[in-house]
Each structure stands twice: as structure tokens, then as C-alpha cells.
């Protein structure tokens, strides 16, 4: 949940402004996006969502989803209309504060005009009933997200904008909220989501699972994974519940890595500070079910059994990406550079390559077997991906991690770990951008001059002259 509006609402929902005939109208329509530089229509202006209550029924045979989204939000201006993001699906009814609301749709924008205007500061509840076959979205970089049918069910994956394929909302990391999800699937299958499982009931040939997410969550890391699952519960040594759900075909291959979750969580806590959420775990689907792993909150998603290093990467994102979320999709290196550096730190602590050796191999162009892959990390500066197609390209990951290593070289190991922990604490459950980060580093180490690191490594084009 955001408490201040740092992004200015983009183009207004003019479609409905014209039909506000009769009566006095003081409010104006909320914005149709939050002016993200790469996804300008993602998220919405004029209100701030506090909580999503999602009731979903999914039938994998017909690929049919029926949903009710009850959203609690607070107006941040006088509102005559506001938008939600929703792609595909049929909307059957929208109510605001229990009264029928007019609505229309254009692209991914569902514009709602409440019967009564909403006042600035007013908390309101909007309910959307919808159904249909949810769509799979192809991103600018050709990866698939949104709703992905799988061999035995489906999975919802939302980076960067896919969650709008299965529930209406404000789909930008800037508007975080808490969630309750109630998901009904045919008996024999299960529905695994974020947060904690608070109930599981089978009746009438269907199983309903309820999940509660108490900490703020960006909609891009919400998931529901429907399928056959082997589930397991344990706890970390400091009492964080671990819940894993594994496709039975991946159970054997996953056992060793998933068994190390409590150990990885302890290691991560020592390096990154207190865990920001109230449960952890993993979801392991079949290899062909998705093209990538994702740091879905509490419980990262893996297509096929992860190795330990991948598990470290996705669990590190719980601190960097999910608790400290990017202000815009341009700030993606604050997610991926940190999660990649977590891999380097883990390997160093496990007796593998040191972070310095990994850095040197990347700089020297010997890290990958493939020459093009070695060259590709210099394609653009990590803080400035050229367009939406490149927010998940290798400079964001590897060169992002190299920026962190340059800071470590400057301040030393102890101060660097203090900085990693301090950054996670300073923006816990919030949002931050690159400018926030450089300011934080400079304030943490006032005697150091970081201007060369920023100019050459963070914002500079090409491979810096010196490592
Ligand atoms: Zn990542």
C-alpha cells in the first residue's frame, strides 16, 4: 500500500468524463496509468489500493475462470471515475460501495463510474464479477506471462504486467496491497498461492484453498498455481513457516535443494537482515510449464527443480524486489542486480568462486562459454535499459551485480553488508528507485567518492576502461 503519490497520474479516463451529465460534479477521473517509463498504462491514478479479496474458480479442462474481486481502496483525489487494469475476460457486474456502477472497457483499462462520486481520502470498496478464458500475455521480450495453462492446471505469473490477465487491479509495483485469495479447483488438484494457507475444504467434487497475505505485495508477484501437488511443511530455525508445493514428477529432483530452504533463509537473514514476510517456501511445476523462474512473494515459482543457486536468487528477491520494490520498471536492476549478487555471495560462502573472481571473469569476458553472451552485458547501462524489451536483459543482472561489487570494493566487506541490510530496512515494504539507492550509499559512506562508480558502471555506456 502506498501512502504518498510520487508518480503523477497519466492520461485521464476521458471516455467517461463526457457522460457525467446531471447533478454537480466536482471530481475528475483518475489516471489510466502511473506514467511508468516502459509501461505507461500499468497501474492507475486517483486512488490507492489497500486490500484485494479474490474469489476464483478455475476449471482446467475448459480453461475457464470465474472471479470476484473485492478491492478496498482510498481515493487520493475527488473521483468521478477511476480505472482498473484488466486484460481479456468478460466483466459482468461492477459495484462501488454496494451500488451498481457503470463501466466500460478500452484495451487493458476497465473504467468504473460510481453512482456517487468519491471524495479525496474516502475509503471505498469496488467489486468486480468476471469470467472467461484468461489470456497468456507475450511481453516485449517475447517471454510469456499472465495466465499460463500447464499440463495439469495453470499458473498465474505477473512480471511485469501479467496479473491483469486474471484479476482486475492496479497492476504496477507502486501500488502494493494485502491479499486474501480463495481459489476453487476440481477435487484432486490444489491451488497454491502467496502468504499462508488458512483453509482447505473439499466438498461437491471441488477443493477450495484460502490464502492470506498479511504484508504488502506488488501484484506482479502474486501467483496462483493450480495442479497436482506434493506439499510439505517445515520451519526455519527462527520459526518462519516453510510451505513447498511440488509437482510429483519433480519431487525427487527437487528434494535436495528444497531441503536447504531453512539453511538459505538463515544465511540470507544474516546477510540481508530480518526476513520481511511471515512465511516462505517454493512452488515447483514441470519444466515445460513456464520459461523462467519468478520470485512470487513468499514462495518463488520454478518450472522444474531448481538448483541451490537459483533458489538463493529467488529467495533473495523477497528482500530485494518484493519488500523493496522498484518505483518503476526502469529500476529493475535494484531487483536483479541484488539477486544476482546474492548468488555471488552464496557461492563465495560455499567455497566456490569469490565475488571478485566472478566479477573478474565477467569483466575479462570469460564468464560464459559464448562470446556474444560475454559481450551482451555491456549492451547498455544497468540503470537505463533502452526500452521495455530490455528490462530483464543481462546488463540488468550481471552488470547490476558488478555495480554492487564496485561499492563493496570501495567500502569493505563489513560496511558493504551493513549497506545491504540497511537498504532493505530503509525501504522495507516500500518502493525505491536508482536515485534513492545512490543517495543511500553516499549517505552511508560519506568519506567515499562514488561518482566514478555511478558514471562508469551504473550509467555509463559500454565496458568501463578499468575493472
Ligand atoms: Zn531475478
Automatic annotation (TrEMBL):
GO molecular function per UniProt: alanyl aminopeptidase activity; metallopeptidase activity; zinc ion binding
Source domain of life: Bacteria
InterPro entries in the cross-refs: Aminopeptidase_N-like_N, Aminopeptidase_N-like_N_sf, Peptidase_M1, Peptidase_M1_aminopeptidases, Peptidase_M1_dom, Peptidase_M4/M1_CTD_sf
Stretches assigned to the Aminopeptidase N-like N-terminal domain: 51-220
Catalytic function, reaction form: Release of an N-terminal amino acid, Xaa-|-Yaa- from a peptide, amide or arylamide. Xaa is preferably Ala, but may be most amino acids including Pro (slow action). When a terminal hydrophobic residue is followed by a prolyl residue, the two may be released as an intact Xaa-Pro dipeptide
Cofactor(s) demanded: Zn(2+)
Residue stretches making up the Peptidase M1 membrane alanine aminopeptidase domain: 310-457
Record-linked Pfam families: Peptidase_M1, Peptidase_M1_N
Protein name per Swiss-Prot or TrEMBL: Aminopeptidase N
